[in-house]
Amino acid sequence: MKEKYLVTGANGFIGSHIVDSLVTKRKRVKILIRKNSNINNIEEHIRNKSIEIVYGDLRDKESLKKALDECTIICNSGALTDLSASHKDLFDVNVHSLKTMLELASKRPISRFVQISSIGAFDKHHSVINERTPLNPINSYELSKVEGERIALSFFKEKRLAVTILEPSAVYGRRVNIGFPYMLEVLRKEMMRYPVNENNLLNLVYVTDVVEAIELAIEKEEAIGERFIIGGEKSYTYKEIVEAAAYELGVPPPTKHIPLSIAKSFVFVNQCISKIRKRKPELVTNYFDYITTDMNIDITKARTILGFKPKVELKEGMREMVDWYLSSHTF
Ligand SMILES: NC(=O)c1ccc[n+]([C@@H]2O[C@H](COP(=O)([O-])OP(=O)(O)OC[C@H]3O[C@@H](n4cnc5c(N)ncnc54)[C@H](OP(=O)(O)O)[C@@H]3O)[C@@H](O)[C@H]2O)c1
């Protein structure tokens, strides 16, 4: 059967970059999106008819059947990524829909099923995180990602479905829709204050590097049945990240601090407003769980088995993201 890709979550942040890359490489691509999905990120591909579209919902088995039809490679980037969503909603999309998709895929000639998981669920109290670090999910989103991984790997073990799991660290870049737009906004207004120890280590990975990791995972036979942490070459302190963003925005870097409880209250109010407006909040209070602990990661496994080598360094990635932010937002 001729190679054909299914990309779920194709209009989202990471999914739209996967589609960009596949279309550039002239691959046959099908996407599954909802009738009311915001298609700004993939408008050009739709206009150029370079992708095939199935309108449906990940939670609907018939949509999944149509989406999978004729496809041989699956990039599952569709997920509920709103950390403030209910446990039920998160599990409906990130676990139950995934299971249905895996069941359907296991009855088809699928050469690779790449599941995009997350590094978030690793126990955050380890100085260096690698694939052997124990998992310790602390919220429903993380629980849903861990359960999704467990089910996906069970399809490899029991049905020999060619599953590969990728666990990216914090992904940034053009079209990012969580965390960073909020950070850039407060920085631009020169209202940024450090709510926590600004010397905590964080790992960021540029979105096109994640896409490259996905493509390597599809290429390499040795990737089947494996989990890979995907991250940037080195971790940076929160302060270094904020200063890199401030530099690209042309604003002075912050020097002041505010108590964590006050920062959380601001974010909570923003989160409530987003809920009322029925849109995904750009920042949620759980965000502070991620920036209050060191996250130093080891990508040796991805480097060795996949040949993964992140290309975009913090300065260049920040410049790209800030350029996109300034040109796509009205102030
Ligand atoms: N961004 C990061 O820093 C990061 C880090 C680690 C892992 N990840 C993982 O990477 C994947 C992609 O994340 P992202 O940042 O690209 O998220 P995103 O921008 O929120 O994209 C999620 C996509 O899933 C789609 N989706 C959600 N529910 C759906 C449903 N019921 N039916 C059909 N489509 C549905 C969304 O479509 P709508 O627009 O219609 O809602 C959207 O296209 C996720 O699995 C996430 O857990 C992300």
Topology at a glance:
Blueprint: E1 5-8, H1 13-24, E2 29-33, H2 43-47, E3 52-55, H3 61-68, E4 73-76, H4 87-105, E5 112-116, H5 140-159, E6 163-168, E7 170-172, H6 180-188, E8 201-202, E9 204-206, H7 207-219, E10 227-230, E11 236-237, H8 238-249, H9 260-276, H10 287-291, H11 300-306, H12 314-328
Parallel strand pairs: 1-2, 1-4, 2-3, 4-5, 5-6, 6-10, 7-9
Antiparallel strand pairs: 8-11
The structure holds NADP nicotinamide-adenine-dinucleotide phosphate.
Question: What proportion strand?
Answer: 5-15%
Topology order in helix (H) and strand (E) letters? EHEHEHEHEHEEHEEHEEHHHHH
Largest sheet: 7 strands, parallel
The CATH topology of the domain at 5-176 and 204-234 and 296-311: Rossmann fold
Rounded mean pLDDT is 95
Spell out the CATH superfamily of the domain at 5-176 and 204-234 and 296-311: NAD(P)-binding Rossmann-like Domain
Summarize this structure as a short list of keywords or feature phrases:
11 strands; 43% helix; binds NADP nicotinamide-adenine-dinucleotide phosphate; Rossmann fold; alpha/beta; 331 residues; 12 helices
Structure explained in plain terms:
By secondary structure, the protein is of the alpha/beta class. It has a domain at 5-176 and 204-234 and 296-311: Rossmann fold (3-Layer(aba) Sandwich). 43% of the residues lie in helices and 13% in strands. The chain contains 12 helices and 11 strands. It has helices at residues 13-24, 43-47, 61-68, 87-105, 140-159, 180-188, 207-219, 238-249, 260-276, 287-291, 300-306, 314-328; strands at 5-8, 29-33, 52-55, 73-76, 112-116, 163-168, 170-172, 201-202, 204-206, 227-230, 236-237. The strands form 3 sheets. It has a 7-stranded parallel beta sheet, with helices on both faces. Helix 1 (13-24) crosses helix 7 (207-219), helix 6 packs across helix 8 and helix 8 (238-249) crosses helix 12. The longest helix has 20 residues, at 140-159. The protein is globular. Residues 9, 11-15, 34, 37-38, 57-59, 77-81, 93, 116, 118, 145, 168, 170-171, 177 line the site of NADP nicotinamide-adenine-dinucleotide phosphate.
